[in-house]
Amino acid sequence: MDFLQLILSGLANGCVYGLIALGFVLIYKATEAVNFAQGDFMMLGAFVCIGFTNQDYMGLDFMLAVPLSILVMGAFGYAFNWGILRHMFGQSQTSIVILTIAMGFIIRFIAGTIWSHEPTSLETPFAGQEVRAGGLVLGVNEVMIVVVTAALTLLFYLFFSKSRIGLAMQAASQNQLAAYYMGIPVKRIHSLVWGLSGMVAAVAGILFASKGAIDPSTGLLGIKAFAAAAIGGFGSLPGALLGGIIIGLVEPLASRYGPAGISQIAPYAILLLILIFRPGGIFSQTQRKKV
Amino acid sequence: MSTQTSTDAGTAAPKVVLQIDNLESYYGPIMAIRGVSLKVHEGQIVTVLGANGAGKTTLLKTVSGVMDPEKGTVNMMGADIQTMEADAIVRRGIVHVPEGREIFPLMTVAENIAMGAFTRNDKGAIAADEEMVYSYFPILKERRSQRAGTLSGGQQQMLAIGRGLMAQPKLMLLDEPSLGLSPLLTQEIFEIIVRLNKEQKVTMMLVEQNAKVALDAADYGYVMELGRIVMNDRAEVLAASKDIQEFYLGVSQDENQRGQRRWKQRKTWR
Ligand SMILES: Nc1ncnc2c1ncn2[C@@H]1O[C@H](COP(=O)(O)OP(=O)(O)O)[C@@H](O)[C@H]1O
Ligand SMILES: [Mg+2]
Predict the structure, then answer these.
(1) Contact B105 A174 (CB under 8 A)
(2) Which residues span the domain enclosing B62?
């Protein structure tokens, strides 16, 4: 019983890591930039929602605050690319990486200034509620995280395989020059990908803040998500989610059954093993880039 | 140097679809196109011949808007387009079928073809055009659920042309469709290009190293060397000219090196 609860809690964490990793991979696949601020995007999304819905701030209805936050973060991601990154076209990868790292610092500073550095929880309608199934007692927020992540995965699958813009994003990531030749506005597609990535970050942040307090430095767990993305192969969306879930599951199991402190290094140990034995990630080769 | 006649006053003369004047394009400090001028008339197949590195691909990229020229104009049916974005140029009816196919390898054949119609939203007509493309390339219909990267070279070339057709082009820019294909496949592809020109009324600007097949298909030809046009005439006149016949030999013996050297030795058209 206890074991199953451990698994669910790990799964819930893993979903959040997976969603942050999804944001990394989306941007990397489409634009070949690595967004080191993805974790901070997640944190910002959480605080934006806290700002909309918590009683200390605007106190809007939760069901209104969630879509608003997703929209705000989508606009933020779009604007970041359109306003800043787009003008660095042709610069080296290093300068883009440094820019996103700097962006992370700025986001942490701004979040701290607006919402303070104190740990804050998102006020949700289902906070503290539980579902009882058989002998199991499960937190509604954890079940929610898993359900929302699964729904989002399905939505993403449909978006990339059926919608015109989703297909154009795939096309632009597989062959950018050919996408230009087909009249796909590649630069706008890049901005849309950044917007999409901001929206996913908002969902990840809202889910994460619904199960525990966050503060502006929470975004640093983006590093774990980065490992998740690499485990999944860095070019695969399902791989990113799977990598996140693997890390999420290993952490609590390692801390329960392994020697003290092992859970902190477990994600990176797995990353190391994957990089040694399957350098392309779990989803390398044949499954790469689909979806 | 003679220029292609265009008497706009004469009603019988076909319209000029594309007119390029004194075009110059650079890669950083390297000048790849050195003042090119040419015309493409409606309904024609115009070929630009030249050895590897002559600047043919750069010329097409400048027309389709993925590169901006430093100087000169590209005029399509009366409008200057040299500063327009690539997607605006596709919407105006110029589509670029790139060198080396450049398909979307992990998408299916059908998805690749659908991407060709990205700039359109007339659903019914798009579906009809898909059938039109499949009627010219039945093999693509057979393979339509297969990933494009798994197709053979010839099939990928067909896919690149079919995908280009989906943009409903008035002018199609074809970059070395014969590249890497067997003589038989090349023949097959060129027959389809000529049929598309006649039956679908697509004007073609065809860039080739394979002068023989290109001049067989074309109405008019230009010869490019080191970023300049060095010769131009009706295709049959070019085909009969001594210089070009020498050029054929160089290429058809599959000895590019020697062909290029000879090519450069010829100065009669300067
Ligand atoms: N991306 C590039 N960067 C720098 N120089 C290039 C690039 N592409 C082509 N060139 C140079 O421009 C000239 C013309 O090339 P290109 O247009 O590809 O010729 P062609 O298509 O006739 O073989 C060549 O000298 C080539 O080396
Ligand atoms: Mg070329």
Answers:
(1) yes
(2) 15-93+171-176+205-251
